[in-house]
Specification:
By secondary structure, this protein is of the alpha/beta class. It has two domains: 62 residues, Transferase, Pyrimidine Nucleoside Phosphorylase, Chain C (Transferase, Pyrimidine Nucleoside Phosphorylase, Chain A, domain 3, Up-down Bundle); 253 residues, Pyrimidine Nucleoside Phosphorylase, Chain A, domain 2, CATH 3.40.1030. The protein is built from 15 helices and seven strands. Helix 11 links the parallel strand 4 and strand 5. The radius of gyration is 19 Å and the shape is globular. The protein starts with a helix and ends with a helix. The mean pLDDT is 94.
């Protein structure tokens, strides 16, 4: 690793393979904490390139505990990091998309920067998130949705985790979660914390062989497709990336209010999701859930465009299918928890 340290000290870019080897080493018992911390800090100071991020993501995928999944599985995991505590939009959208016919392997974790991560929200809804990997596979097969709890799928993070904590600054690991889906989902809706990352993450996923991807950032700061402001999108489709902006009006919504979707606890997040599914919430929360479900349906291939996806998502919620999907997920997870 000293050779890589020397390169980074002079702000020289690492190759795809060098970045891969570096992360494989950091996520192993062989890692020397001082050297690993220096590598991560120097890489962050230099600025991470597409090749470096792609190599790092491949390394983390190699260290992950994967599950078997259909080739058409998708994910709605975002990077987080914006510090804005809304209800768990991508989790809600994942359930709606699955109820509409998509196969969703939802990757997620607890949050260090928000009031509720996807793990906390699902627990508050009554889902057992600590299934064995075989049970996660069975859940996906039975229901076309599962929750891939990051802590159970990335055991090698026990080596990198303490180094990151002691370092105390953002590193490349902050962006790797959505790039390392345990079900090898090749189509994804990903939210990122700034506009500049939309194109870069799309380029990384293209480098890694993804099929169809929407990388999004809202002008309101959200790591989501939003209805309170325009959203910047980098879309990977048919091997090509294009960037564009989309407004709430273009998707059939009036501009919403960010304050209407804020929460202070996982329980509040769960209540909003339940109200959307029951039909009790018809405001900003429902609208933003529908547009993100639409994004998931686009990358799944079930619809071609976001406006069409919004219509399918709305029909899915209004028919009660989303609420039923959630109930079935709770029932499956709890039944298997009791058996264990």
């Amino acid at each position: 690793m000293r050779e890589l340290l020397q390169k980074l000290l002079t702000a020289e870019e690492l190759s795809f393979e060098e970045a891969r080897e570096m992360i494989l080493w950091i996520m192993s018992e062989d890692a020397v904490s001082v050297q690993a911390a220096a590598l991560l800090a120097l890489l962050q100071a230099k600025g991470v390139t597409v090749e470096e991020m792609a190599g790092a993501a491949l390394a983390m995928r190699e260290r992950a505990s994967a599950i078997a999944a259909p080739k058409n599985a998708i994910d709605t995991c975002s990077t987080g990091g914006n510090g804005i505590s809304t209800f768990n939009i991508s989790t809600c959208a994942a359930i709606i998309a699955a109820a509409a016919g998509a196969v969703v392997a939802k990757h997620g974790n607890r949050s260090n920067t928000r009031k509720s991560g996807s793990a906390e929200a699902l627990e508050a809804l009554g889902v057992n998130i600590s299934l064995e990997l075989k049970e996660v596979e069975s859940c996906l097969k039975a229901l076309d949705i599962c929750f891939c709890y990051a802590i159970n799928h990335h055991p090698a993070m026990r080596f990198a985790g303490p180094i990151r904590k002691d370092l105390g600054i953002p590193t490349i690991f902050n962006l790797l979660g959505p790039l390392t889906n345990p079900a090898a989902a090749r189509s994804q809706l990903i939210g990122v914390p700034n506009k500049e990352l939309t194109l870069k993450i799309a380029q990384v996923l293209k480098r890694l062989g993804s099929n169809r991807v929407l990388v999004v950032h809202g002008d309101d700061g959200l790591c989501e497709l939003t209805v309170t402001a325009p959203t910047h999108v980098a879309e990977l489709r048919d091997g090509k990336i294009r960037e564009y902006d989309v407004t709430p009006d273009e998707l059939g919504f009036k501009q919403g209010n960010l304050a209407d979707i804020g929460i202070d606890s996982p329980e509040e997040s769960a209540k909003i999701i339940e109200r959307i599914f029951s039909g009790a919430d018809t405001g900003t929360a429902r609208d933003i859930a529908l547009v993100n479900a639409a994004g998931a349906l686009v990358v799944s291939g079930l619809v071609d465009e976001l406006r069409e996806g919004v219509e399918l998502a709305a029909k899915t919620v209004d028919s009660g299918k989303a609420e039923e999907k959630l109930k079935n997920l709770i029932k499956f997870s709890q039944a298997n928890h009791q058996q264990a």
